[in-house]
Automatic annotation (TrEMBL):
It comes from Grantiella picta. This is MCM7 factor. The gene is Mcm7.
Amino acid sequence: PSLRTPRPSEAIFGILRDLGMPGGRWLPLPHALQVLGAKGFTRKQVEEALEEYESLNVIQVNPGRTKITFV
């Protein structure tokens, strides 16, 4: 059986979830961008993933774009 390759936004969300601070409720956005960039994701892919998961009410990004909170 072949494993399906996740869409970039799914892969990004999985990484964000894994990066969540102790308790898993939030993480600093600059740290997330650094880790995701190191894994080869572009800033555009990350922004699109953040928008997608915000629209699904799974995460919230604060107005200053410094913190991601898991809903």
